[in-house]
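Morning, I've got a small favour to ask if you have a moment. The fold is given in discrete form, as structure tokens running alongside the sequence. I'd be grateful if you could look everything over and explain what you see. No rush at all, and the record is pasted right below.
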Amino acid sequence: MKTAMVLGATGLVGRTLVNILLQDRRYSEVTCLVRKPLQSSQFSDPYNRLKPVVIDFDNLQDYQGYFGVDHVYCCLGTTLKQAGSKSAFRRVDFEYVHIAAQLTRAQRTASFVWISSVGADAKSSNFYLRVKGELENAIMRMPQLPHAAAVRPSLLLGTRSESRTLEDVAQKTAPVWKMLMQGPLKKYRPVHAVDVARNMMTRQKW
């Protein structure tokens, strides 16, 4: 049986992913590094596999031992609006994820899968996409990281605890986007969090 760790377990994809992992009999334990205690009502843990650990993400390197699992899933991410500044956004979406990849490498964990974004490009004029692209480059060029993979979703569908205007619109118009976005545009369709979570699982090294 495998062990997994999830960073960003309280976000839309992270919460969905944790619930799927807890139902998967291939996993004996699912560790979640979180800022504050998890709300048990958000998770179904029939086999008592969930192990939440409250940490200080600004000192993520102090928790290296928790990365000694089979699979690391990183669902960390914020928005410019939530972060409040570009530097605060970069700290979460680049620095935290990059450090997590480094700790994964240090523990010789089998694989590391994280959420990037469709359109991620280190040369993009869009700050959000540029940071995502820079992160992809930094992780994929990291020596001795056995297996790393980025999942690149478009706008996410699902029930969030907070409202995001673009994603709220995408929820209501998803059938229209699905019909209009064909061929090369297919990758830009809004995607459900369940599909992103399952995609992350398929990208792990089994």
